[in-house]
Write a structure and sequence with these properties.
The protein is of the alpha/beta class and 160 residues long. The chain is 39% helix and 19% strand. The chain has a five-stranded parallel β-sheet. The longest helix has 13 residues. The C terminus is likely disordered.
Length: 160
Amino acid sequence: MLLSKNGQERGIHIISIVGMGGIGKTTLAQIVYNDREVNAYFQKKLWACVSDPFDEIRIAKAILETLTGISLGLHELNTVLEKIHESIMGKKFLLVLDDVWTEDERKWQSLKCCLKSSASPGSKILVTTRKENVATIIGCTRLFNLGNCLKKSVGPYSVR
């Protein structure tokens, strides 16, 4: 799903890994994030642990710090989003948003708009969450229900 060339002409694709706590969502995301082919495919890779409560400025600053490697001490959301936009413009990126809980669509709007306007074709967002409703609210284009897949698999590595 992450390396797919389908649909690269428009928009950013959001893939959600959904499942109950402790089932391995973050572990799967880490394996994918560190994969050799994934490293070669994306120009920028970013990871932000979201958790609860959803704090837009904290998340945006975490993304920016991953991009720049330094803490810039910015405090205004719009300034941080502008810096993110400048840092990823024209680059194919993978952003992992780990442990997302919020179902308040308004809290996503600024970050989502920034990422969509900056995204080069092939950019992806990978979200881990316990709630399918969260995946729907953030505009998930592909849902991977880890619980359903594990029930159908023969062993821990048979799911692809």
